[in-house]
Every structure is written in structure tokens, then in C-alpha cells.
Amino acid sequence: MDRSSQEEADRRYDLRIQETGARDPREFYRDILKDLRETDAEAYQEMVARYQAEVVAPLAEGSGDPLLTWLEFGRALAQRTAPGRLVRVDATGRAEPAQEELSWGDLLLHLPDEPRSRALPVGIPPEPTPAQRATLDLLVTGRVRLPEPD
User: Fold this and answer.
1) Neighbours of 76 (CB within 10 A)
2) Where are the chain's structural domains?
3) pTM listed for this prediction
4) Which of 21, 86, 91, 97 could form a disulfide with 129 if both were Cys (CB 3.0 to 4.6 A apart)?
């Protein structure tokens, strides 16, 4: 991957984030990659190669929606880290299987098959509802937060 390709991919992504007000999921992905590097070097190298081929190259060439490209990478990264399923959590906190086409405005969580594993965030909406925040607290961070009184 050359520097100019990376810079163009980053430029397009940053512009799309500014246009939409979407939340940047890369912070979650960096943490997942860091853990993967420490636990499975082969899987880490595989995901770095996939990042270069499926994120940087298409974005540098001007194809695809940068947010959706990153969400698809996040889906693949989470699945490679811990086999499981991707769910979309609606505004009320109800989960359903994620659709094939992802949306940057949805709360998207990867639920590993291993019951004791924490959920991995793939996408978080710009303004999560209280029910979505409670879901994140419980499934991702392991905290239980009581609802605030009305």
C-alpha cells in the first residue's frame, strides 16, 4: 500500500464522516486488531491484507461509500476474531439479524458464539437512544446501568 493511496482513502473517509455526522467506527476496529495481533498473528496479518485490498484500494480509486466499506470490514474483522452473528439493535433495544446491506446509522453488534464473550461493536449510531446505550453498556463493556427515573 503506497502512501498516496492511504491518504486518498483517509481523505474520502474523513469527508464522508463530516458530511453525515456518522460515528467513526475505526476506534473499535483498532482495539479489535490490537487484541488479534496479540492472540493470533496469522489472523492479524490476514485482516491487514484484507484492509489494504478491501478498504484502502477501493476508496483510493474512488469506488464505494467509505462508511459502508468500513462497516463491511468491521463485520469481517469481528467474524474473524470470534465466529458469531451480526445483529442490528433498534431504538427500543430490540435486536434482529442485520441485513446484508449495513447502515451507518444503526447500532450493529457482533455477538460471538462463545456465550461468555462480549459483543464487538461494528457500528454505533451518532446519537444512540437510551436503550441502545444500555445495550452497549451491558453487552460490550459488561456494565449494568439502571435507567434514569422520568
Assistant:
1) 17
2) 3-141
3) 0.88
4) 91
